[in-house]
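User: Just a sanity check before I run the rest of the batch. Below are the structure tokens for the first item. I only need the designed sequence back.
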């Protein structure tokens, strides 16, 4: 599978990227970086660090948007990921350098090089993808598919906009544009992530492994795991990693529903909400396959493989 990932690394983005690196069937074409969890420079530095760790020096890392389409003071997620986005453990910067052009242009170019073959996975705010679709609406028709981590289909959000999820609330206008003009998507929403939270004690046991990725992930995820222990009732919820399983292993999706989904841009409490037209009253076409149940065994096997652990 030829894959383009747009991401804001991010502790759970990192786990997702390790999963892609561990799958021999994935041909990573490029990474687009967007500011979200933390600012664009730190997210870019983190992506480069991961490429270095994984021995992928030639994978192009394209920085893109550093703020939402309509600039505003958006809350980042540094309290979950650390101020540097990777757990504030003082990582030495990578020697690798970011690539030009801007992530939006790079995605358009990649879609021309691989028409009908390139899968898009978005793990952060949708600003880069919205810019790309605005510049070149034909992009939607050239993609082989789009899997998106974002949204909260039952309005159980995780942001200051109570009904909205972080990635889509961070840049609600970009999300609205993408859901209106983008290709149909597979949606991995925050509530699916909550339903499939991982047992923290089990994750801690995995991370006690002495492989390179396990040691690295043990360090960068410490703040996040500690916070989950306090607020997450013993569950660890790396959202982006679940989206990666959905993309890489279609048979891990046990149940899904397809409906029209649009994005609220005006609500005072619900800005960025994924509004699902459950009874198809709007007359809009279905644009989202919403994943509702995952094979947890398949997901856990992929996580362990990404950490370099043998199954047993
Ligand atoms: C999403 O928000 C970010 O903090 C995570 O990286 C994930 O992409 C979950 O709502
Ligand atoms: Ca993310």
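Assistant: Here's the designed sequence for the first item:
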């Amino acid at each position: 599978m030829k894959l383009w990932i747009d991401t804001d690394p991010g502790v759970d983005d990192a786990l997702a990227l390790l999963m892609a690196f561990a799958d021999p069937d994935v041909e990573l074409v490029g990474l687009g970086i967007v500011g979200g969890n933390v600012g664009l420079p730190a997210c870019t530095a983190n992506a480069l660090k991961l490429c270095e760790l994984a021995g992928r020096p030639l994978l192009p890392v394209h920085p893109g948007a550093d703020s939402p389409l309509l600039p505003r003071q958006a809350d980042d997620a540094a309290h979950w990921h650390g101020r540097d986005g990777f757990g504030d453990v003082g990582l030495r910067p990578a020697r690798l350098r970011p690539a030009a052009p801007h992530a939006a242009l790079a995605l358009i170019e990649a879609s021309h090089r691989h028409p009908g073959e390139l899968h898009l996975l978005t793990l952060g705010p949708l600003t880069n993808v919205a810019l790309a679709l605005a510049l070149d609406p034909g992009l939607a028709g050239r993609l082989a598919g789009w899997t998106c981590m974002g949204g909260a289909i039952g309005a159980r959000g995780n942001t200051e906009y109570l009904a909205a999820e972080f990635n889509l609330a961070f840049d609600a206008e970009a999300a609205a544009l993408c859901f209106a003009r983008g290709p149909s998507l597979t949606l991995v929403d925050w509530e699916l992530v909550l339903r499939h939270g991982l047992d923290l004690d089990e994750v801690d046991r995995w991370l006690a492994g002495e492989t390179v990725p396990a040691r690295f992930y043990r360090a960068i995820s410490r703040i996040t795991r500690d916070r989950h222990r306090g607020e997450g009732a013993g569950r660890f919820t790396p959202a982006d990693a679940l989206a990666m399983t959905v993309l890489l292993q279609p048979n891990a999706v046990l149940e899904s529903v397809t409906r029209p989904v649009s994005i609220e841009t005006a609500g005072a409490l619900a800005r960025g909400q994924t509004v699902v037209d459950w009874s198809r009253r709007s007359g809009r076409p279905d644009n989202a396959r919403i994943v509702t149940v995952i094979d947890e065994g398949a997901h856990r096997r992929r996580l362990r493989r990404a950490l370099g652990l043998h199954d047993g």
